[in-house]
Amino acid sequence: FLHLHRHHGCRVQLGGADQMGNIMSGYELVTKMTGTDVFGITVPLITSTTGDKLGKTAGNAVWLNRDKTSPFELYQFFVRQQDNVVEKYLKLFTFLPLEEIDHIMEMHAKEPEKWGPQKRLAAEVTKLVHGREGLESAKRCTKALYYSSMEALEAMSDQELQELFRQAPSAELMLEPGMNVLDLCRKANAIPDGPSGYQKITDGGVSINGIRVTDPETVLILGQHILKNGVSLLRIGKKNYYIIKWLQL
User: What residues does the Tyrosine--tRNA ligase SYY-like C-terminal domain cover (predicted)?
Assistant: First the structure.
């Protein structure tokens, strides 16, 4: 603060509320050394749903950069906010008139199961950061992941698929005549070889594009198991996803 004041005329330091001690120390140093009035401004900390501070150190930072936090991830962060903070966040992060925010909260009191304020907050912030296209991307990803929408999956770009399933392995496969569900799972290295992999399918642990498949011998069908955009989303169990890109369909 002292260096910036001396060399650049800086008189205001801005920081999170947890930096009050540092800001006060800077204020006292600058005023003592220069006799100039300087100022400190603190802003409220934004915390996670568990009350923890957000940040790089904690590993739970929310970024404006799409490469670090996708529109879908940003949307989901805000849509998961609890009732006790959502009104404050609507006032902090959106340009909605206060009267409209009051109306949103009144409707929420009548129909809390609709999560109206959270959805509006998520939409407004995502649109502000990533534009209308980013908001539509977030909605497509939400429908594909949480509502098993084949239409949403078919409309997704390669970038959206990679953002939505950052940790998911991907494989490029050739569709061979008579290729079935068991062949697909094995070629994608999604199930073990032998009887246990076969049983994984018959037990209902495998779904393709959101549809559960229980017959390992089911032949893959274009438009059902393979979407129009040449992609299949394979899920093993509840959380293990595999992105299959089909070549030369």
Answer: 160-244
Q: From CA 49, how far away is CA 107, in angstroms rounded?
A: 22
Contact assessment for residue 95 and residue 125, using Cβ atoms and an 8 Å cutoff: no
Read off the pLDDT of residues 129-150 as tens digits, 9 standing for 90 and up: 999 999 999 999 999 888 888 8
Confidence band for 49, pLDDT divided at 50, 70 and 90: low
Which DSSP category does 226 fall into?
A: B
How many whole angstroms separate alpha carbon 126 and alpha carbon 222?
34
CATH code: domain of residue 201: 3.10.290.10
Where in the sequence is the domain holding 131, given as residue range(s)? 71-164
Query: Percent helix, strand, coil in the chain (nearest 5)?
Result: 50, 15, 35
Residue 188 · residue 244 · CB < 8 Å? yes
Q: Are residues 154 and 182 in the same domain?
A: no
Residue in the block written with tokens 């393979």: 226
**pTM for the full model?**
0.76
Q: Where are the alpha helices (DSSP H) in the chain?
A: 2-8, 20-34, 71-79, 83-93, 98-110, 116-146, 150-155, 158-164, 181-187, 195-202
